[in-house]
Structures are given as structure tokens and as C-alpha cells.
Amino acid sequence: MHEIIEALDKRRDAARLGGGEKRIATQHSKGKLTARERLDVLLDPGSFEEYDMFVRHRATDFGMADTIIPGDGVVTGCGTINGRLTYVFSQDFTVFGGSLSETHAQKICKIMDLSVQNGAPVIGLNDSGGARIQEGVAALGGYAEVFWRNVQASGAIPQISVIMGPCAGGAVYSPAMTDFIYMVKDTSYMFVTGPDVVKTVTNEIVTQEELGGASTHTKISSVADAAFENDIETLLEVRRLFDFLPLSATDKVPVLAVNDTADRAEPSLDTIIPDSASKPYDMREVIVKLADEGDFLELQRDFAGNILTGFIRLDGGTVGVVANQPLVLAGCLDINSSKKAARFIRFCDSFSIPILTLVDVPGFLPGVAQEYGGIIKHGAKLLFAYAEATVPKVTVITRKAYGGAYDVMASKHIRADVNYAWPTAEIAVMGAKGATEILYRSELSDKEKIAARTKEYEDRFANPFVAAERGFIDDVILPRETRRRITRAFSTLRRKKVAMPVKKHDNIPL
Ligand code: HXC
After folding, report:
1. What is the Cα–Cα distance from 273 to 398, expressed in whole angstroms?
2. How many structural domains comprise the chain?
């Protein structure tokens, strides 16, 4: 028996060594952890249950029969994060560059199937050169099996991708179909084809970092939701994100014990709106003041800064926040902000996460570039996402809610449940200046007359009461009491049920 156990230990040690000491040292020299070290940081100590440690590839071409590494370049299994179950895979760059073979894919598929059956998220730590070149179509087929499962799992369980090395080809398309993508600054890249192929085809010369580094994907392409300094910080941030998420579509949002009171007043909000309507203020500050313990996990922070998206807790329960940001483009809606917020809203709705909307929006951004870029279609995404979302929706208009953007930003008409406004709210077709210039064009040369007209318009519409008189606003609330009022509103909506028309699925304007 002793010898049998020793033999098992030997097999395990061989699998744990992956591509060998030399390649592990190279991995470390780049500032990267190994696949297993990463799981140690991500999961609760001692919670990891590994599967398929002894799986071997079956390829024989290109000398592959002589290079067999147990585990085949990916560590898979399950574990817990603060006591809650998650399935994981962690690609091992020391084994054929983490490339995906048929058997490597089967290992990932196995844990994806288990995660859907058992209602727990999948977290993928990606560090892979894509399809294993030596395996040809067997590897391509393996990727397609993963892609198919990504789609089946979408909306059933949260899927989180962490990009922790150079990821090419299939290694980016699978993450692209998951809910969140986190990257590591300076050591992770995502591209469909790398710089060499780009140079051959288009003659463009770019570095890996320029083409697909964290900065590119968080600021320009918006492929990634966030990026962090190193492996450890990134994995700890994944744990933080995980704590906000329900385990599956049939689970409720987690409710944590928080060190805050639901009826906490926030007097500083009474003075946050500047005297002049054209002066900005920081909506992020409002969110932080409303959140339990001031904790706001912001997503896509570096992209489309005119809208803010992320998670907070109210009375311990997760709430998704969408908020116009007056500091950027005066908070106007444009193509990028519409797409950003629409995707976030659809995630929240898939997983029964209530949505808080904070509104200060002067309208859609005018311009040729916006029209040519398809603001009609992309703006419609946001309208569509809000209108189809059946989760509890609470809206607070802090200042401007003009024009179509008033309708879009979770208005009562597209079925927000509770709509509040601060006394500083202005709900109108447009701002007073623009309105008087159109209505009284013939009087424009008479400054006094125009000033009087503007004042008349402001008195009539630059307030929340016209909307409140019609019941479009449920109450005009004191800013300082917002936290208490929205927390209560969400608690009344916990058992909300909405009947939907029979359909296969909707047809959001993509
Ligand atoms: C087999 C691979 C591999 C791959 C890397 N390796 N990619 N082996 N299949 N796809 C191996 C290398 O041979 C090397 O082995 C080791 O991994 C480390 O690779 P390096 O090139 O030395 O590392 P680095 O310089 O860091 O470059 C990493 C890289 C580069 C940028 C990922 O290796 C690369 O460009 N690889 C090919 C990417 C690619 O085109 N993949 C196919 C995509 S098509 P040794 O033995 O020397 O350590 C695809 C189709 C899916 O995925 C369908 C999509 C819809």
C-alpha cells in the first residue's frame, strides 16, 4: 500500500510541476504567478478541489507523443470565495503556452457543465496562446465546445474572466462571451491576431501592449471591465466582485452584514448641487454617500465616463447603479455610454439585481459623428435594456432630466417602480435657454424680453412638480434622506412579480 501511495504522490507532483522549473521561473520573472499560485490567492485557503489532474492530451503529430504533461495545461475544479461555491479553471502558460487542446477543452467543459447544474459561477483565469497549433481542428472543435457552453451558461450563472497573460484567438472569444473581464496591467494582452499577423496583413506596426494591453481594452475598446496592477491585486478584486454577485439566476442577491444603518442621513447631499445649472459636480460622490460603508465597485471606470456603472450594497443587499456623470460631457448620453449602461442593466436583470438609477442628463449628445455612428441604434439599446428589465427599479432625478433622455433613464413610463426627484430636479423637453430660443426666435434680438421668457419657462418647468403633479414622480425627497428612502423603496419591491408576454427571446437592437 505504501508504494501505491508513493506512486500516487509522484504522479501528483509531476502534474503540479506543469511545464517544469525553468518555465515556472520564466513565468515568475515576468511578474506572473503560476496557475496554481493564482488559485491559492483567488480561493479560500484549503477549499480547492481539483479535478482531472491526470488528464493527458492524445495528440501524436509534430512530436507531441513524446511531450505529455499531466493536466494538459489547465488546472480545473471548484472551491469557495468567502464560503460560497465557485467553479474555476486556471490555464498554465508553462505547458505549451497554456494553449487549448481537445482534452484541455474537455476539462474546462466539465467544470462549466457542473457549474450550470449546480448553480455556481465560473471563474476562468486565462493565460493562453489560443488553439493548440499541433492539434488543428481538434483544438478548434474544443474551443467551439467552450464557446457553446459560454452561451448556454449566459444568464444562468455569472461568468468571470481574468486575463493574466497573452491571450490570442479562441482565448479571447470565450472571455468575450462572459459577463466580466478583468485584466492585469503590463502582463496581459488580448487580441484576435497578434502584432506579427497585423504587420503582415495591414502593415501596421504595434506592440502587444498597444494592440491589446489593459489600457487599450479598458479605455478604447471597452472589452475589459477593469485592470489592476498585478496578479494578486487582480485576484483580490475578483473576490470583491464575486461577493456582490448571486450564485445563479435562481439565487437571490447575497446580503452581507454591513457596518452601516439603513436610515443614515447624509446632510452633505443637500448642498452638492451647484447654484448654476451649467456647473458640474461629481455623481460618484453621490453614489459613495448613498452606499453601505461607502463601498462602490465601479465597472468600466475608464470608458464612457459620462455614465457610471457598478455595484453598491443597501442594507447589505447588492444593488446595481447606473448614474449620469455631469463631470464628463455634462452627463450627456452618447453611443458609448448607452452601450456601457445597457450591457450592465442586462446583467443585473439576468441575475435579479435591483437597479438604482441616478439621473442628471441634459439629453443625447448632438453631432454628425454620433448620428453616423448610429446613436439611434445604440441609444435604443439603453432604452430597450431599461424597458425589458423586470427587476426592482428605483430612480432618483438629482437635477436635469431633459428630453428623450428623461424617458430613457428609468422613467416611470418605461416601468421603473419608484421614481423620486430632489427639489433641484428639472424635468423638461429641454433646458430653458434652448427652449426659449426655439419658441421665441423672433424676439431673440430683444435681450430683456428673452430673459423674461427664459424666466417664465424656468418657473414653469425647471422643477420636479409638473411631473409630480401627474404622478410620474412619486415624491420629491430631501437629498439628505435619499439613502433611507431608496433603501425602503427596494425593500418594498423584494417580492415584485411581472408577467411577460410569451416569446422565444426579444430582439434588442445589436
Ligand atoms: C501551441 C503554443 C501556442 C499555441 C504558444 N505556444 N502558443 N503552443 N499552440 N497556440 C508555446 C510556444 O511554442 C512556447 O513553447 C510556449 O508556448 C511559450 O510561447 P512563447 O511564444 O515563447 O511566449 P511569448 O513570447 O510570451 O508569446 C506568447 C504568444 C505567442 C503571444 C501567445 O506564443 C503566440 O503568438 N502564440 C500563437 C498565438 C496564436 O496565433 N494562436 C492560435 C490562435 S487561433 P516552448 O516549448 O518554447 O516553451 C485560435 C482559433 C480559435 O485560437 C477560434 C477563434 C474563433
Report:
1. 8
2. 3
